[in-house]
Amino acid sequence: MKTAVNDFKKKRYDRDNIKLESLLRWQYIYACLNNFCEYQLHLEKAEYQNDWVRFFIKDSEGRNILKLALINQADEKSIGITYLEKNQCKGDNFDSLVASLQYIDKFSPYITSKDKVGWIGYLKMTNRLKDTDLFIDYQHFEK
């Protein structure tokens, strides 16, 4: 029985370590994405908290027209693009924005039941980026 209890403790300890390691990897990925948006794309921060940030996306004349959201919450790791205010009606360029985002990756629009735009494009990172090691190795390789 003592062996079984020790094996259980070890599994529990290993599981906790794996969970912590995964959390740290996602923190690193989130920080990389933040830095990329701010220092490479030169996007201005619109709003932020500990586990999410929103950046303004400007048009060719420098006006804020969209927001890019990076979300790193316990149950959600995602990137989203929306209008300045969520739940607006589709704009004239909605279809071309969706097509552009889908060209980049499998972004999905989210339309509410009242036919308002929640997200022009939304990408769940945990579904798209299962191998955090690969992303981290790529970041080091790029530097």
Brief summary:
The protein is of the alpha+beta class. The chain has helices spanning 2-40, 94-104, 125-128, 132-142, and strands spanning 44-49, 52-58, 64-73, 76-83, 108-111, 117-124. It has a six-stranded antiparallel beta sheet with strand order 1-2-3-4-6-5.
Structural category: alpha+beta
Give the overall shape: elongated
**Radius of gyration of CA atoms, rounded to a whole number:** 19 Å
Strand content: 25-35%
Query: How would you sum up the major sheet?
Result: 6 strands, antiparallel
Number of helices: 4
- Total number of β-strand segments? 6
- The average pLDDT score comes to 82
The quaternary state of the protein chains shown equals single chain
Q: Mind sketching the topology for me?
A:
Blueprint lengths: L1 H39 L3 E6 L2 E7 L5 E10 L2 E8 L10 H11 L3 E4 L5 E8 H4 L3 H11 L1
Antiparallel strand pairs: 1-2, 2-3, 3-4, 4-6, 5-6
Helix pairs in contact: 1-4
